[in-house]
Amino acid sequence: MIRCIAVDDEAYASEILATYIKRVPFLELVGTTTNPFEALGLIQDGKVDLVFLDIQMPELTGIQFLKICGNKCKVVLTTAYPEYALDGFEHDVIDYLLKPIPFERFYKAAQKAQTILEPAVSAAGAGQRAEGISAVAAKQPVQDYIFVKGESKNKFLKVNYEDILYIEGLKNYISIYTPTQRIVTYQSLRDLEGQLPRPPFYRVHKSYIVALDKIRLVDGNSIYIEDNSIPIGETYREEFFKLIRER
């Protein structure tokens, strides 16, 4: 297993990376942080093999971080700014991911890291690994929520998984429906799909994700959640009906 940490000055971005890391079977999440100096401490202690690192951070830039870190661990850069790619590769980063990061692109970067790192992760380090994970795990409860962007730049809304009925995609926006409100946020449905646990959330249409445990009725090619009718797309129909028959 490759021990990973996500470092980004925006908690929302690091939570997305954490969700992605948890979906990859050969990656192990040590923690997330908005503080690059905390991440450097974990690296210095030998508790991290791979860092998913933002470049634009106020306290310490990603390039400065790379210079301090040296060769103590490997790095995948995550940023919205393509102009830093050359600087990154000059510091021997594994990959360079442009935000917003689709899960498929993240997985390719993880595979590159696996090729480089997994042979070097020896059984001799197992005790040290367990110590590092347990230290951070004590501060990291099992995630049962997501943060989504609000209407202003630094506003984020916490949405509990158990409250989500279904999600509708509207071009570059999504609407998250709960029993009490509709939350509109600037994000693609595809990116959000990569953040949500499966189950209970499943894509049933190019424009809809549903919570399976909130389905009241399936009738023909329609799903009913409370009083809302959601179509089942032709592309997703076979997998969806196979899923509900098995359940």
Q: How would you describe this structure to a colleague?
A:
By secondary structure, this protein is α/β, with parallel strands linked by helices. It folds into two domains: 136 residues, Response regulator (Rossmann fold, 3-Layer(aba) Sandwich), CATH 3.40.50.2300; 90 residues, Beta Barrel (OB fold (Dihydrolipoamide Acetyltransferase, E2P)). Helices cover 34% and strands 30% of the residues. It has eight helices and 15 strands. The chain has a five-stranded parallel sheet. It is elongated. The two termini are 32 Å apart. About 7% of the residues have low confidence.
Radius of gyration, CA atoms, in whole angstroms: 20 Å
- Total strand count, please? 15
What is the beta-strand fraction? Answer: 25-35%
From the N-terminal CA to the C-terminal CA, the straight-line distance is 32 Å
Give the overall shape.
Answer: elongated
Largest sheet: 5 strands, parallel
Overall mean pLDDT: 83
Secondary-structure class: alpha/beta
